[in-house]
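Bench notes, afternoon.
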Amino acid sequence: MATAPDQTAAGAMIPENIRAMLDAALASGNDGDVATIVKYARSVDPLSGDAVLAIADSWRADRAAARERVIRQASFLNLWTGKAELGGFVATGNSDSAGGSAVLDATREGLQWRHKFRAQADFQSNLGVTTREHYLASYEPNYKIDNRAYVYGAAQYESDRFLGYDNRVSLSVGTGYSVLKSADLKLDLELGPAYRHTGFTDGTLQSSVAGRGSLNLQVRVLPGLGVTQTASAYVQRYNSTVSSTSALQAKLLGPLSAQLSYSVQYESMPPIDRQTTDTISRAALVYSF
């Protein structure tokens, strides 16, 4: 028995089965599902497909308007999303040890501004003797020029006496660009000048102008399985730094995921009794919020 078509306000006839699939996709709130139904409808019946596209566009416009209202009314402490990691690590290089690690990554997306915050701590104590102690905190505001380009500021504090410095402050400004921007693949690149001040463990103080570059790649391999690659470099006349972290994350249950990661940090001119490269392998439980 043939299904009765749906008469839209524009006068186009949408078959009942297509309208049912469209309604289900709209109810799910998944824009990818909606786009798939629109593509299918337009290939099967271009006339009703245009009506389906109009409904989908209206739904997207309503969602964008509602999101804008929420953002405008929210305080700075609201609308943060991110993840918290808690796990262990194995380190080689200046300290051969195993210990605990905690990481907090948070991002707030506004209409014109994006705010990113990161805090990290690695600590190991064996029989009362500390064998690894690394702390990092960073804040990066982004001003969006358009859908892909932005201007950034970055402030970062680090402490790692096993890599040869008690305190290091890095400040940078520059431009960023989202080269790839889809649900399954994202790539952000940043480049700009920087200023660094380092207090080394041997008492030496060093301040220098530097150049900063960073890369942030996110790939969704399968539903619930993703790969990330982040890297940054501070290049300067004295001690330059290059760091990289590769991670594989698998969804477990609800907001919980398991993550394996491998990090490398290279210091070109550490104090005489320090090695240039440290590596850390981590296994962590991740809570997304």
